[in-house]
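Handoff note, outgoing to incoming analyst
You'll be picking up this chain. Sequence as last confirmed:
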Amino acid sequence: MDVLHVILQILLGITSLLLTLLILLHKGRGGGLSDMFGGGMSSGLSSSGVAERNLNRFTVILGVTWGVVIIGLGLIMRFSGAGDS
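Most recent structure output, in case you need it:
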């Protein structure tokens, strides 16, 4: 069980970083924080529809993977007694 715990923790770190980067790659829809950081000025430089759809799909898949890893780590900690003090 210890090896699985370490693997899930490493996977959590990698998916967290990738998910953050993918969310930041999405184009801003306007009116929010994206405008404050210059997202409103890049309306002429928007990506194609196919690239945006693929980015959305990959972000959702990575988000679901991240959630499954979180649940898996929680279950391991719950049933292995690692969370007991």
